[in-house]
Every structure is written in structure tokens, then in C-alpha cells.
Amino acid sequence: MPQIEVTAKRPQRWDVPFGDAMREQDVDQLLQIEPFCSIDPERFPSTLPLRSILKNDTRVNRYSPGAIVVREGDYGSSAFLVLRGKVRVVLSGLDEEVLGRVPENKPGFFKSMLRQLRNPKLPEVRRHVSFESELVANDSHEVDNLAQTRVFLQDVPRILENTRSLVLSEGEIFGELAALTRSPRSATILADGEAVLLEIRWQGLRDLMQRTEALRQHIEQLYRENSLRVHLRETPLLSHLSAEHLEAVAEATQFETHGDFQWNETFDTDSRGTEAEAIVGEPLIVEEGAACEGLVLVRSGFARLSYRFGHGHRTLAYLGKGQVFGLAESIKKASVEEPVLMKTSLRALGYVDVLRIPQAVLEKHVFPNVPKDLISQAAEKHALHCTEHHCDLHAETLGGEQEQVDTGLLEFLVERRFINGERAMLVDLDRCTRCDDCIRACAATHDNNPRFIRHGHQHDSTMIAHACMHCVDPVCMIGCPTGAIGRDMTTGIVQINDLTCIGCSICSESCPYGNIRMVEARDSSGAIVIDDSTQQPIHKATKCDLCADQPMGPACQHACPHDALVRLDLGNLGELSEWLSR
After folding, report:
1. Are strands 485-487 and 494-496 parallel, antiparallel or unpaired?
2. What does the DSSP 8-state code read for residue 224?
3. The architecture CATH gives domain 17-108+144-231
4. d(CA 57, CA 70)
5. Same fold yes or no, 17-108+144-231 and 268-406
6. 306 Rama sector, left if φ>0, alpha if ψ -120 to 50, beta otherwise
7. pTM for this one?
């Protein structure tokens, strides 16, 4: 029987604009103010004109006094420019109860069963682009998430009484850090009186920065300043410093980036050579044997901690956001005259932001002004015990029982960047009977289309299956032209908005783990949807969504009859160790 086909117009980047209220006169007004009036429209190609970016990738939001613009901890995907009024950035002291977080609203048992009964008989049936009227902005997850954050603080002066905050005025930009790094918001920001803000989704911000050197430098400077101060505030060793000493530390701290922001483009475990060759090829942040020159704080990304072993190097650990390097050496250097040498090397895994606090600043502003017991606790927490042939890292450094994780497994996770996975699918092959109950459960939950492949890289009896890991750094989001792939603002789950996915396959090609697939879309009758201009099937991106709308969570994990499958944060070695030793 011949395959049934229907034709449709292939979805485009701006079929679903960011906001449906941007008129031509609104764009004209934007082009008369900074930074847009200084941007040369000739630098933009005809396929991506400046006016179209402003019209489709921005929207104007109006906020009443006390309205929360962004909440600390929510994942961000847009930046904001203050057009009128002021906003207040709350750095610390705001009670969580006033933030108005919406509890998870997953369907109950009967609603879930009804969904199973209504599943289509054919896979990949989409509420699709056959009718352009379906593509309305209100279907965008971006708009829905915005509505969730419209929380108002009724008694602002009282609530802010014991908080630390600062005010941003007209012309200032905020939120660019979370937007560009796919990370949680670092502060809560609310309207300080009536305020009008221009919200720029990160795809538009990226395109503007690529073609506007002044804007790029401005954003990067904001990124450096905001990243620096927020990170210093969150570092326990520095939290007891007075404002004067903390500012002195901030002024002297150096901001550095190592590696490539789009590290996935060159990441290929099969062509990296041996482990020793791969380690040597990684960007060096601090080298073993070098003189101690201060403290290194990891702001974002991952770094490999290694030491020389025989003719090569051995991985000791990996450090992530919020962790420090060189503290023991810095403390020792403060008490002796001769040079203190670093016991290990620190290398960038992919893309890493670090902050360096010079030794002289530590000795003048930190060590004399921090309680000695706090310094001792910090030193013990990050202690390294090295002999000529072996190094041990204190278990608390990575927040778990690292010594129970086999060195070979640790190197396996680091080499293949699986440490990036916050919800990786691990399979214990000693327990797995290959019954495929996990796949059937996934298919039953996702319209007859299983969202993962039950095979992958192995270390001994542990396998990392091909399922979306909902990464700490989801590089799949970098190139998406429409914003169709993004994080849920509260859970951090990486999701695909089917209506705005144009089937370009950039996310699939960007995923370094091969966990996103492109599939042919069908309409409700089961017919394959064909592009009316190219006569080729229209494809859509598909991947694991962690069963975000199911009351029991991941169906694959709950369906396994032998407790052989689990979804784990591979950045938490304590959790991994507990599962391996169960």
C-alpha cells in the first residue's frame, strides 16, 4: 500500500514571534534609543535584518510596583533592557515564601490513564503546521512561563527591610548572564515602581551580539561584573568579609575563560587519542609544579583535576560550579617565605569560567578577616593528600563519597563528558534482562514513540543509555534559531516546543551525546507531512522529556522490574556511589 502524504508549508523561524504586540512603530521607537540606534543595519544579512530581530525576538513588558520580573533559581532564556522606570536587584535576604513559586501540577492517575487510551496508533502524530492559524504566540512555552512569574509583593518596603539590593535604571541591561549561559537566575529582580522593560530572547541577543561589536563588549563586560560579584557573595570563605574587604577582593579578582563556548563542535571521543593525549590537549588553567599565586574559583563549566602518574596523567576528580582550587597551597603560602608548589593540575573540560584571587589579596583582605575555624574547615574540605605515587581528595570536595567511585569509572565519565548530565540514564547490565519493559513504557507515554535507545557507552557493567541527560550545560540550545528547545523555568528540564521547531536539525547535530533524533512528522490521519516547496518530508526533533507531565516521573525507570535502570545526576558522585553499591 503506498504511503499517504500531505503537503504543508515548512515552519519558519518567526512563525511564532516572541511577542504578538510588537508593531512597526514600536520597532521605530527602539531604533531611536541606545543601544539599537548605534547598531549598523547593514551588518545584518537580508535573511536576518535588524528590524525583524527587534520585531520578532523582543517584546515590551509592563510591570506594576512590586512585580517580580525574574526569580532567583529560575532558568533564564532572555535578557531585559530597562526602557522606563527602575528595577531592584535583590542580592540576598529575600524569603522564599514571597516568591510565589507554582507547585508542580502533574495529572492524576485517572487523567494519565485516559491519556494512554487516547494515544494515536501511529508514531509521531503532531498538532502540526498544516494550518498556520494554529501557530499562535500563546502556545509558546516562553509566554506560559512568563505568566508564572507575574507575582506581586504587596508590602515591598517591609519585605526588603533586611535584604541587600541595588537599583537599575533606564538604559541598563540585566539577565544576560543566565540567557547566554543557559543557567539559573542568580538574583530576584522586581519592579521598583511602574516599569517598562524590553525582553530580548537569547536567540535575538546572540544575533545582535554577533554583528555588533560594541553591544558584544557591553554584554561581556556586564557578564564579567555580574558573574564576579555574585560568585564572590556565594563563596563561603568570603561570606564573612565586610563590604569594604569584599569590594577590595572584587576589584583585584581576575575573570578568565578557558576552552570553547561551543565545545561540542570539536568534541569527538573517538578521535581524541589515548587518555594521556586527551588530557594534555585540554586547556591548562593551573599546572602541577607551578608556584602558588592565589585561589581559583570555578564559576561555570567543569575542570579536570589531575596529577602526573608514570609517563602520563591520572584524573583525580573534576570540579564544577562553586568549587575552589589551590586553597591549601594558598593557606600554606601565607605562613612561609619560600615558594609553595601546586600539587595538581587544573584543566578545562569544554568551556570553563574561573575567577582568580591573587595571593597578595588573600593575605591582606581575606585570611586576617575570616575566623580561623572557618579557614580550617575550608582547608579540610578541599584537602589533597599527595605522596610521590598517589593522591587522595577529601570526599566532601565534590559533595559526595568520591573514594567509593572507581577511578576507571570516574575517568570514563570525565572523558566522555557524562559529568554534564543531570538526569542521565544508567543501566546496570548485570541486572538488566533485556526485557524492554522500559522502552514499552516510554512508547506508551509518548504517542507510540520511545524517546531513547537502550544502548550506549559502557564501563564494566554500567551503561549510559542514549537518552537526553538534561545537561548542566545543554549545548543543544546554542544554535536553535527559534528557541524551540529550552529549559523549563522551574525544573530545568530541557524541552522541545513542537510548534516552534522548524526541523533544522541543529540541536540534533549539536548534542555531543547523540541523544536528539529527527523524525518524520505525521498528521492526525497518519499521513507524512511533506514540505510544499521541496517535496521532502518535514522533520521534527524528538528526545526524552523526563516524563515531565507524568505524576510518577520517568516511566522507563518505574517500569523496570529488576531495578536495573535509574536517572541520576552524574555530578553527584555520592548519589552515583550509593546506586552502584546498593
Report:
1. antiparallel
2. H
3. Sandwich (2.60)
4. 18
5. yes
6. beta
7. 0.66
